[in-house]
Amino acid sequence: MPVSERFLALVGFQLGQFIDCPEVRSLVVYVTHKGETGQPSLLPVGHWPPDERALPPVDTVSRLRVPAEQRRWLPLRDGQRLLGALQVEASRNPWPEPLAQRLQAVALALTEALRLDLEGGELRQRLSEREEQLGLLIHQLRNPLTALRTFGQLLLRRLGPEHNDRSLVQGLLAEERQINRYVDAISELAHPDGLLAGTASPLLLPPQLSGPEGQPLAGLLEPLLQRAAATATLQGRGWQGPEALPDWSGDTGAVAEILANLLENAFRYSPHGASVGLHTASDDQLLHLTVWDGGPAIAVAKREAIFGRGVRGTRGQDLPGTGLGLALGRDLARSLGGELELVVPPRSLAVELPEQGNAFRLSLPRPPASAPRR
After folding, report:
1. Which of 12, 13, 187, 323 could potentially form a cystine with 310 if both were Cys, beta carbons 3.0 to 4.6 Å apart?
2. How many domains are there within the chain?
3. Radius of gyration for the chain, computed over Cα atoms and rounded to the nearest angstrom
4. What are the pLDDT digits (tens) for 252-295?
């Protein structure tokens, strides 16, 4: 059946209202359908009065196409596209004006409902095809990831415990584990029921990317700092990491995601040669994690706007990206009972930070907020 059950129910309701019109003998709703030969025909989907009769489709040679005194056709047309037709058989011709108006109104209602129903069916078909393709890609993506993990473990075994490059291979394996977490999350979200009902914000991380409660934050920060140091070396810029990793437990996966986005932005949007760093500070109430860069300060008019979804700063207009990193970071920070804010210049936070640049400070409650993030 080319239409949904909802449309069939609407057809029954619309046609059933003519029970008070004795001059109307029969009503049949047809929808345009292309058969195996590719030639369009009109396929009956509903009729009134209801009975057990079997209605044949109307093709190019059907006798129903032959004009008849008591039979008229009202096209269900969307622009130049014929969606279907309403066949009316009545005992009077021409129709009384009130009856003609009622039939025209029903035809218009059925046209709009049929258009929406067909569009919905096409969308569902495309979504189903995309879900199938996405599932195939996810399946194939796991193979090279497994190979990377195997090669990395073999290389780590060959280097030995005292080799200078051992930490680089460990960083690669940590990145591979993080990519696998993303793949698992995408695999869950690829299903129609993958999105959690009642999620506070569509930007919040799926459960697969949340850190287990009680896992130390330092364990997730180490690969981020290794990646940042390597990126700074490749780009020929200065990197200043924290003197000590913070002691904080909670939804550490969310915190790591925030810092990963902030560091990526700092390396991507600050000009070549500008230093980048991560600074930590704490007091009895809050833990502060600040990602800073030594580039030009963000314009005052943009400092709050850049936290909007899809909003990007002036320097990022020509660079790849979605403009969701800061919005995601702020949403996650607030869901943890904290805050993410832009502070200019970085020196206003600590004397050891540069006088010029931008500082994105993540403040987290100490101890972690007791309310769950979702």
Report:
1. 323
2. 2
3. 32
4. 888 988 998 899 899 989 998 999 999 999 888 899 999 999 99
> DSSP secondary-structure letter at 95?
P
**How far apart, in whole angstroms, are the C-alpha atoms of residue 71 and residue 89?**
4
Locus of tokens 């393709």: 133
User: How many CB atoms within 10 Å of residue 274?
Assistant: 21
CATH number at residue 22: 3.30.450.40
Residue with tokens 């810092």: 259
Strand partners, 46: 29
DSSP string, 254-306: HHHHHHHHHHHHHHHHSPTT--EEEEEEE-SSEEEEEEEE-SPPPPGGGTTGG
CA neighbours closer than 13 Å in the CB half-sphere of residue 119: 8
Q: Which two tokens stand for residue 304?
A: 């709050």
Euclidean distance between CA atoms 212 and 192, whole angstroms:
26
Residue 248 buriedness (CB in 10 A; 0-12 / 13-18 / 19+)? buried
- The enclosing domain of 274 has a CATH number of 3.30.565.10
Tell whether 200 is covered by a domain.
no
| Residue 292 · residue 357 · CB < 8 Å | yes
359 is a domain residue: yes
Q: Which amino acid is at 310?
A: G
Residue 2 DSSP one-character state: -
Determine the Cα–Cα distance for residues 175 and 227; give it in Å rounded to an integer.
Answer: 9
Q: Of the residues 92, 125, 158, which one is the last residue of a structural domain?
A: 125
Sheet strands side by side (includes 40-48): 40-48, 24-34, 81-90, 71-78
Q: pLDDT for 64-122, tens place per residue?
A: 665 577 888 999 999 989 999 999 999 888 889 999 999 999 999 999 999 999 999 99
Q: Is residue 155 part of a domain?
A: no
> Whole-angstrom Cα distance, residue 166 to residue 158?
10
Contact indicator for 289, 362 with CB cutoff of 8 Å: yes
- Angle value at C-alpha 272, between 270 and 273, nearest 5 degrees: 105
Domain that holds residue 359: 248-374
Name the 3-class secondary structure at 198.
coil
pLDDT, one tens digit per residue, over 322-359 is 467 898 899 989 999 999 999 999 999 999 999 999 99
Tell me the two tokens of residue 88.
């009316």
Tell me if 329 is assigned to some domain: yes
Which tokens belong to 42?
């009109």
